[in-house]
Amino acid sequence: MNCNNIYKAAAQGNIVKLKTIISSGCDINKGDEEDYTALHWAVQEGKLDVVKLLLENGANINCQDVENYTPIEIACTKGHVGILKLLIDKGSNLSLDRGGYTPLHASAASGKLEITKILIQSGLSINKQDQNGTGYTPLHWATQEGYLRCIELLVQSGANVNVKDANGFSALYIASSEGYTDIVSFLINNNADIDIIAEGSVTPLMIACIYNHPEVVKVLIENKASIEIKDNEGRTPLFNAVVHGNTDIVKTLLKCGANRDVVDYSGENLLNLLRKL
Fold it and tell me: Are residues 69 and 173 in the same domain?
């Protein structure tokens, strides 16, 4: 019996073949070249009956591949609700993570609403920051990927909207940089600090000006974002919009009375730049 056939059988949901392989004495917890076990494969492909069979025959529910992915994280990423419920019921360790990246981070980053709801109800920390270089919370991840419904669920469940990541980015800053107008509006309406400062003293309004998101700029200004605050280079939102050639935003800021007589810390004159547009 070729025990390596267990991976294909698990992935394809071939119960008959899988039972034959198991009864022959093959180690069901042995991983492939990536340490992906039969259980990993069954979970990834959404084969609930195979997952049940493997667990009944001693599969390690908390097995990890070479990148430390567990079956439960895979279920969360793929959105396999039935498998997730089974894994939780069978005692899967929800606290296992990859550098602070939990199943809740995975579900939020994938926009899996029902999965996210189940994990919150299971008691996973809603404000935990990963340690993989980003410092993202589940809210940061959902915002980065533009999943408004997940964001709404996280905030309604107690997520802190003003937590900063490793670069000082809040959810509002990320939404502003990505041009997610609906998410920007939702976060503002749920107590996001509109002038929160990121690395370089850059605000959400500034980053929207830099990345040319005119509708986001309008929403931020309507909600009293400061149009005269300066970054570490002495540049205001208007200055940044001019430098990046975003003329529609420049017009909006000028209509709102933004100061034209700004000189940044290098001595660059905003009026001179405006004349070049």
Answer: no
